[in-house]
Amino acid sequence: MAYPHLELDRRLPKMEWLSVSRAGKEFHIPVQLRMGTHGPTLLFVHGLGGAKENFLAAFQSQALSSCTLVAFDLPGTGLAQFDPEAWSGVSALAELAQIVRERWAPRNAYLVAASMGGLIALLLLRKYGTGGLLGMVNIEGNLAPEDCMFSRRTASCQFEEFSGRLFEQIQSELLQSPHTGDHIIAHNMALNTDKRAYHRYSFETVAESDSGQLLKEFLALPLPKLFLYGEANRSLSYLSTLCASDVEVREIPKSAHFLFYDNPVSTFEEIGKFVSSGGTT
After folding, report:
1. Fewer CB within 10 Å, N side or C side of the chain?
2. ∠ CA 232-205-216 to the nearest 5 degrees?
3. Distance (Å, whole) CA 108 – CA 102
4. Would you say 226 and 271 are in contact if contact means Cβ atoms under 8 Å apart?
5. Taking a C-beta distance cutoff of 8 angstroms, is the pair 225, 246 a contact?
6. What is the pTM of this model?
7. Which tens digit of pLDDT belongs to each residue from 175-220?
8. Does the domain spanning 4-272 belong to CATH 3.40.50.1820?
């Protein structure tokens, strides 16, 4: 007799905690983990205003049912505590992501990174290299100045102004969007985001995005690469450059920037095709 609830239970994540020492303090990072069978490991990195739950649908996706899946909260989001002395910018987050990678995805792994998470992944690879990785999936990750939708506005003001006005204004603008993902992120910002972390991470995000190096570094990675973007963002200026390269580029229909919420089925099906083919689709 088949027991569907047992199969569902196997596909859903369990909570783990990673202890990290930084700036003389101990931090406890929550990690969603689901051990796979014969598939590769996927390490998910979320973006600004997001959390590990951005990728919950991946754990339910049949396309990824054989894979080990790992997602974690960046400090100041979800259940991960924030301290400005320890987590001064996205470079510090890249170091944290490397610790998670060494613990749960040391080999036979793909980086799957969204929005600011794409920047974190590139900084990780810049510092630690690509050893043990099979490829990278970039979900509208930061590659150019145009990708700083809210971080540029955030970095342009002092924390007092951001905390007192702009943080709530950004949420309001997201809630007026026609896209489901924007609404969910707005609620996540209100429930699960430390304003100090959002403000602090924006500065280096803007600086790196303006440097002109991220797109070059992404294109030069000696790994199979998949870039996913939402149908509403066909105007991204660098799409033609990506399409002319060795990067696999896929448009996710009926979605915008947060396509893992707008169209999770297509998003994770495309990722499943990519990883099951060894990084080619």
Report:
1. N
2. 75
3. 12
4. yes
5. yes
6. 0.95
7. 999 999 999 999 999 999 999 999 999 999 999 999 999 999 999 9
8. yes
User: Which residues are CB-neighbours of 274 under 8 A, at least 6 positions away?
Assistant: 110, 135, 137, 224, 226, 248, 280, 281
96-136 residue pLDDT tens: 999 999 999 999 999 999 999 999 999 999 999 999 999 99
Q: What amino acid is encoded at 10 in this protein?
A: R
> How much of the chain, in percent, has pLDDT values that exceed 90?
94
* Greatest extent of the chain over all pairs of C-alpha atoms, in Å: 62
Of 115, 74, 105, residue with least CA distance to 229: 115
The CA dihedral of 161, 164, 260, 79, to the nearest 10 degrees, is 110
Domain ranges of the chain: 4-272
β-bridge pairing 41-45 and 109-114: parallel
Beta bridge pairs of residue 30: 17
